[in-house]
Write a structure and sequence with these properties.
Elements (H helix, E strand, L loop, with lengths): L16 E5 L4 H12 L2 E3 L2 H4 L7 E5 L1 H8 L5 E7 L2 E6 L12 H23 L2 H4 L5 E7 L5 E6 L6 H11 L16 E5 L34
Parallel strand pairs: 2-5
Antiparallel strand pairs: 1-3, 4-5, 6-7, 6-8
Helix pairs in contact: 1-3
């Protein structure tokens, strides 16, 4: 569940990161990219099915790495913020994104924002999680009644008791409405620790689930953070 903005004119050059993402099924490569860069991706999981990424290795900006990762996939990145990207299909024979995906991408962003809010509230209701001391990556599914069902951690937080608390805090949480037909699941989130410099939110402003949320939208993605 991530939701388009280009780089601001006059801003400092994007920092270079050292990537080492081998060729892999595209969805797996996107998840690895999101986890490494803390960028949320909103995309339709059906668009990644059967596709394999090219390897992304070496020093480059996050945007350059994503462009390389998507090479030959038929998908383009549409930035909705510095940390959130919607992946949309390209027009055949061109490098232009398909405009028809915009409306459903907007619906996906709205629903993903709703899920993000519920995750935020669930974490803030737990004193240990509200401290924001650990980086937590997870994937969750929402049932037909709009309630969070299975929750799977993408690696450990480093503390087994915190891992169990995360799963328990989210399972059964009511989103308030079912997943729109335009979205496919699961939803992927990366919750960043306070030490990362990102806003946390439980103590007044910001959101601990600043993503990778990745939602997968059936017109372009999130799902798919």
């Amino acid at each position: 569940m991530a939701l388009a903005a280009s780089a601001d004119v006059g801003t400092a050059p994007a920092p270079l990161l050292r990537f080492d993402i081998p060729s892999a099924p595209l969805q797996s490569a996107l998840e690895a990219y999101g986890a490494f860069t803390d960028i949320s991706l909103l995309y339709d999981s059906s668009l990644t099915a059967g596709r394999v990424s090219v390897p992304v290795q070496g020093e480059m900006s996050a945007r350059a790495a994503l462009t390389l990762l998507l090479e030959g996939s038929g998908l383009a990145a549409r930035y909705t913020s510095d940390k959130t990207v919607a992946l949309v299909p390209l027009r055949r024979g061109t490098s232009d994104p398909v405009d028809e995906a915009s409306a459903e991408t907007g619906a996906g962003r709205r629903y993903f924002g709703l899920v993000q809010t519920r995750v935020h509230d669930a974490f803030c209701a737990q004193p240990v999680l509200a401290q924001g001391a650990r980086r937590i990556a997870l994937r969750l599914w929402i049932d037909a009644d709009g309630q969070i069902g299975p929750v799977r951690l993408l690696g450990t937080s480093g503390d087994a008791s915190v891992d169990r608390l995360v799963v328990g805090a989210l399972q059964g949480v009511r989103i308030g409405e079912p997943v729109p037909p335009s979205l496919a699941q699961p939803f992927t989130f990366v919750i960043l620790p306070k030490a990362s410099g990102r806003r946390w939110g439980c103590d007044g402003g910001g959101d601990p689930a600043e993503e990778r949320p990745s939602g997968r939208q059936r017109t372009g993605g999130r799902n798919g953070r």
